[in-house]
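Hi,

I'm pasting everything inline rather than attaching a file, because the server keeps stripping attachments. The sequence lines come first, and each chain or strand is labelled.
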Amino acid sequence: MEVTTKSMPYEAFKDNEYIEKLVNELKESGTNVIVGSLDKLINWGRSNSLWPLTFATSCCGIEFVSLGAARFDMARFGWEVARASPRQADFIMVAGTIVNRMAPVLRRLYDQLAEPKYVIACGSCAISGGPFRNSYHVAKGIEDIVPVDVFVPGCPPRPEAMIYGIMQLSRKIKVEKFFGGVNRQEKQREFLAQHPVEGVND
Amino acid sequence: MANFQDKIAKLFPQATIEGDNMPMISIPDNQWHDLALALRDDEDCRMDYLVTIVGMDWKDSFGCIYYLMSSVHNTLVSVKVTTTDRERPMLHSIADVWKVGCLYEREVYDFFGIVFIGNPDMRRLFLSIDWKGFPFRKDYNEENPVSIENERQSDLTYNYVELPDGTVEKKEIEVFHPGDFVVNIGPQHPATHGVLRFRTAVDGEEIKKIDVYMGYIHRGVEKLCESLTYPQTLHFMDRLDYFSAHNYHHGLCIAIEKAAGIEISRRAQVIRVMMDELSRIASHCLFIGTYCMDLGATTMLFYTLRVREQILDIMEKTCGARMTFNYDCIGGVMQDLDPDFQKDVKALLAVLPANIKEYNKIFTGNVIAKNRMEGVGYLSREDAISYGVTGPSGRASGWACDMRKLQPYSIYSELDFDEITATEGDSMARFKVRMKEMEESAKILSQLVDNIPEGEYCVKVPKVLKLPVGRWFTLVEGCRGAFGIYIESDGSTKPYRLKIAPPCLPLAGVVDHITRGTKIADLITIGGSLDYIVPDMDR
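And the predicted assembly:
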């Protein structure tokens, strides 16, 4: 199955093996026709209206502003409604360095996102700590704090790279199995078991 | 200058003064507060602007170097105060002499653990209250792992008071009064321009007090620089205030070149100045766009980003990146200019006046914009100097603080441009000053675009660059104000201490003062008009 989005040719994507692996997993688990068709419909809707959270800590955030402006115009893909409240957003684009003091805040924002929720680690700081990796006050990548779906490398990534990153996310959403509990809730429960949060009641 | 040196020597016989151009006064701690008052108030000194406080750890002693500048005589002086006590290092505070001192002293306390006697707010500034150790000490080796547990909050701050018998007492003070209604704004808030947090005490709609919380993007750049060679430290300058990337690079390059005695070619100087001015236009463009968006005029962002994208294209052709250019290097610039550079800059200069006219037409004269900006967030000239508010925000209060004029570097002294100042001191003035500065930058560009001399773009510098033992301080004009670089070298390939004095830290420090008594809705207007960049203040 060729999973693609926004009329992009399938060959234009660079890491199709990964998506094919997901598709095979999906095929092996098997679905009945009606549920499968409903899945497709829901995923189609979701993958085409991804709303980001307005979240930026440093340089990458400015490229995210450019992405929203007229030249790169993410509105044409249906991602334009950047929300300031995590309760209304679908995914966080972690644009910038995450430091010790910010880590609990990012975690809380992630917890406040409504299901299903996704995370894009944007730029080398969010991926590994980037040029600040050796600092005393910088997280070495956000994977220890929140689960990540897509990594977008660059320092900062060009707006085109960000578009590609969000397209990868929307392809990933297209092969999700909505009915039957493949969703994030499972993953999150798993993640929370590994990373217990103390002192948070909400 | 000599006059004032004699005076100091007479009044404070224990003080030693070395150097002529930028004298360094060394004084025992117990006389420092008196000297500070004398320096500020004496007619011959009038050192009313505290540029920065550099905390130092010389292994056998701690100390601070204060850089002071006179807004009247345009002279620069440094004062060195030390303490040999490593267990409980203490110095006397000058927070009552220069208002910005309170914030700078908190920073030094955060990094070095030096307690300032008399500072009314002796808390950590960037790091959490549970942080173990003081990271800038040379013997720091504590482990502070990243945690996703919520940070412990405290409403207490401390004040160290010296009793008549010489002992020091620690007093607890509450930041807010018990009955205060405190609203939390940030760190995740679209109008704080990054991850800044205001704890705002309000009385109805009126702001009583703001407690600014920083450190949500504190990356410890200065400490990182101590383990890197001089050319390696350059790339961090791109990531502080990412709009002034070229200007900050320029500043650090000047500091290192001055120390190493490297003369750069005229071509490189012209290229650097042109890049500085291009980034100033791009930066002010984005300021106008985001500021208007804060005030509800979303459309403006699209208009201003059109010019910004055009400038980014010019830079991309030469530097190879849209942001984080890493273009200025020690000895000149990284690569030669793109063949299209002159043509592109001319095209930009041709469309810029029409664009600025358009911005004014859409926004500046708008009645809603006028009502929201005029008279809102007044800052007087004296307060601007005392709080160290430089750049366009300081100039809007009538303080001529442009480092391109006061401490001319590179080829700025040969160029014909005006320093824009205003006297109103409100948000509208801050907005208009930036608008006019774009025209001045365009003027500089038009003078240089046809006069780029031939020559090498980068002179030969030693592969392994070592600076002689000593200390250097340089000031340049970033897009948001005076940007200072302090380098102390012990003769090796790495800096012993590299201190960055950012313009945005005092900008955030003055928010509390400006907003007192205004409506909470005006906080967004005032914060936006100051135009601080959070990674720059946190570093």
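Helices of chain A lie at 16-29, 33-48, 59-68, 103-112, 124-128, 159-174, 184-194.

If the labels don't parse on your end, tell me and I'll reformat.
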